[in-house]
Amino acid sequence: MGIFVSDSGNQDYGTSLHYCDEILMLQIRVISPTTIVDFGAGAGKIAQIAKEALENGYEITAVEGCKDTATMLGKTCLYNAVHNCLI
Fold this sequence. Notes:
Layout: H1 16-31, E1 35-39, H2 45-53, E2 59-64, H3 67-74, E3 81-84
Parallel strand pairs: 1-2, 2-3
Helix pairs in contact: 1-2
């Protein structure tokens, strides 16, 4: 599992945030989805976890309300599709 850095630049070792990442990684591995929709994709953390948890054979779509963030996500290789819209 990769290390995710918080907005403050501090590593999240031992915090509930890091613990939730581990739980999400395990859930994704067990479920082994072929399609994922990341609502409020932000910095793409869910996509990063999915990429590490799943070998291949899945599609992940970002739904992001902030236009600048959606534009940034569209320039990454994390998502198969990025949609800028509100739920």
